[in-house]
Amino acid sequence: MISQENNNLQRYVENIQPLFIGLNDNAIYACHHVAEKSTETQQVMVICPPLGHEYERCHRALKQFASMLTKVGIDVLRFDYRGTGDSAGEYHQHSFASWQQDIHQAIDFIKQRTGVNQVSIMGLRLGATLAQKVAMQRDDVDGICMWEPCLDGKELLDEWTQDQKAHEKALGYTATKEHLSEVLGFSISPELMKDVQELSTSPQQLIAVPCDKKCVAVEDLQYWQQLLGDEVTYISSQGIEIWRQEAMQARVPISLLSSIQSWLIGSER
Amino acid sequence: MNEQTLSMGPTNSCVGIFTPAKQRRQNNAGSKVAVLLLNSGLIHHAGPGRVYTRLARALSDHGLSAVRFDLSGIGDSAARQDNLSIYQIATQEPIEVMDYLQKRGYHQFILAGICSGAYCSFKTAIKDQRVIATALINYQDDTSNNELASQAWSKRYWTDSLFRLGAWKNLLTGKVDYQRLFSTLGLAAKKSTSERTVESMEPSHSPLQNASFTDEMDVLLERNCNVLLLVSGLDISQQFLNVLLGEKLKTYQKNPLIDFKVVDGADHLFTNVAHQNQFMAYFCEWAAEVAETQK
Q1: Which residues 1-60 in chain B show a CB within 8 A of chain A?
Q2: Which residues form the AB hydrolase-1 domain (chain B) (predicted)?
C-alpha cells in the first residue's frame, strides 16, 4: 500500500539527480535535472553560476530556471565550480583557469550522459564571462545566453570593495583599507585578484562566440542594441539584480527566466 | 575528498551530501554517530558562506560523519507534492534522513543548524530519541511570535544604548526626541509591572502540547541529550535566548549537558571568514566531545 502511494507521488516529483563529476580533489558537484517529456530533438543546457557570495544569492533562481526548462523537454546540468558549493577544494585555491576547466568538464560530462552532440550554455555575472571564454574554445556550443556578464574587472573589484566595506561598517570595524582579502565570506587569492584585475572585455568581443544562437540579458538594453545591432537576442534585466539581494530576500525573476526559456526553445516574443 | 550524493525520503527527492569520517576515533567512540546539518532559512545545503560544506569536512577530520541536506523545496531538493506544512516538514524530513542513515549503520545523531536550522534541530530532537545532541546556532524560536521578538529587540535596544558612547552624547547634547524617549520609558515601566508572559499569536508548533521553550529543553535534558547554545556576538539571538530561558538561565548555565558559546563580533550568518573558522572550531570541539562519550 505504501509503495503504491510512493509510486503515485514519484510521478509528480521533479527528477533531480545529484552527482559528482571527477574524483577526489577535482570532484565537481552537479545536479542533472532530467527533462519531463521528450521532444523530437533532445536539448541540453549547462548553467554556469556566478561566484562567491553571488552564487549563494542566485542559487534558488537558477534551480527554478532548471526546473522550468525540464518542463519544456530540456535536460539541464547545474554545477558548482571547484572551491564553491559542494565541489572539492577551497575558494582561495582556484581562479579563472580552473573554473573554465570545470565548465569544459561539465559540458563533456552531460554530452556523454545524454548522448547529445551540441549544448546550450547560460551564465550569470562572472559565470557568463567564463562561459563565453569556454564557448570560444569549442565547436559544440550551439547557443549561449549571457545574463549581466562582468566585462570590466576594475569595476567589479570596486563593487566588491564597496560591499565588503559596507559589511564591515555594519559590524562596527574596518579591516579592508586598500587590499581586499575577502568578499562577504569568501577569501580572495592573489591569483583570483590578478584575473579580475586583468578582466577587460567589450560587448563586441563577448558576442564573437562561434555559435548560432546568442542572447544577452542586460540592464542597459539601449546601449547594447546600439553597439551590437541584430546579432543577438536582447532580454531586459532592468531592476533584477538578484546577486545583490540576501538569499532570504531574493525573488525568483520568473519573467526574465521565461524570456530566456522562450529564446532557447525558439519562441521569442 | 570522499563525499557521496544522497537521494533520500519516500520519493528520493531529498538531496544531500554524505561526508564519511576520515578516521575512526579512539575505541571506535562515535562510530555510529552522524551529524546532520539543517538548512539555514532558504540558503541551500552548502550553508551561508559555504560554511556547512567546510564544517562537514572539518568534522570528517575529527572522525565524525556528516550529512548536509535540503528540506523539500529548498536548495537542490524538489518540492513536496503533499500538503504537509513547513512545520511538519521541519521535523519529518530530518527524521526521514535519520531513518536512511540508520540503514547505513548510524544509530545516534547530532542535529545542528543556524537560525531556522536551529529551530528544526530543536523540534526534531524533542520528537526523536535517536538525537543525542543538538546545536542551536543563533536560535530565534518561532519568528511569528511577535511578543517574543519585541521583548528580544527591546532588550537589545536598551543594552546597546546603555553602553554606546554616542547614545549618551546624543542624550546630553539634546540630539534626541525627549518626548518620545520618556513615553517609551513610561511604556516600559508599565509593562514591567504587568504580567510578563511570552505568548504566540500563532498556534503552537511544538511537538509537546502547549510547552514552553524551557519545558522542551527539560525534556531533552532528562534524556541526557547535550545542547550547544551558540550565538553570534552581534546577533539578536542572544537576547532571544535570554527571553526564552528567563529565570532558568542560571540553572542551565550550571548544567554540564548545556554548553554556551559566543562568537565575538560575528553577525547572524557568520559572514566573515574568521568568524566562520571560529564557529567551526567551537562546533567540532563540542561535537567530538559528545561523540567521545558514546560507545
Answers
A1: 1-7, 10-13, 15, 17, 41-46, 48-51, 53-54
A2: 42-153
B189-219 pLDDT per residue, tens: 555 544 444 444 344 455 556 688 999 999 9
CB-CB neighbors (< 8 A) of B60 in chain A? none
Say if residue A2's pLDDT is above 50: no
In this prediction, the answer to ipTM > 0.90 reads: yes
Residues of A in contact with B99 (CB under 8 A): none
CATH of domain B4-144+206-292: 3.40.50.1820
Choose the closest CB to A85 out of B50, B51, B77.
B50
Closest CA to B149 of B194, B199, B107, B218: B199
CA distance A127 to B166: 44
Determine the 3-state secondary structure of B120 from DSSP. helix
Asked if B83 reaches chain A (Cβ–Cβ under 8 Å), the answer is: no
Provide the CATH number for the domain formed by A10-151+202-265 in this structure: 3.40.50.1820
B218 and A CB contact within 8 Å? no
Whether the per-residue pLDDT at A263 is higher than 70: the answer is yes
> Is residue A1 predicted with pLDDT exceeding 60?
no
User: Which residue is closest to B232 within chain A, CA to CA?
Assistant: A171
Residue A14: the pLDDT is: 87
**A160 or B198, which is more confident?**
A160
Which pLDDT belongs to residue B161?
62
The reply to whether residue B43 touches residue A248, judged by beta carbons under 8 angstroms, is yes
Q: Which among A269, A244, A266, A247 has a CA at the least distance from the CA of A256?
A: A269
- Contacts of residue B84, defined as CB under 8 A and 6 or more positions apart, other chains included, come to B92
CA distance A265 to A38: 13
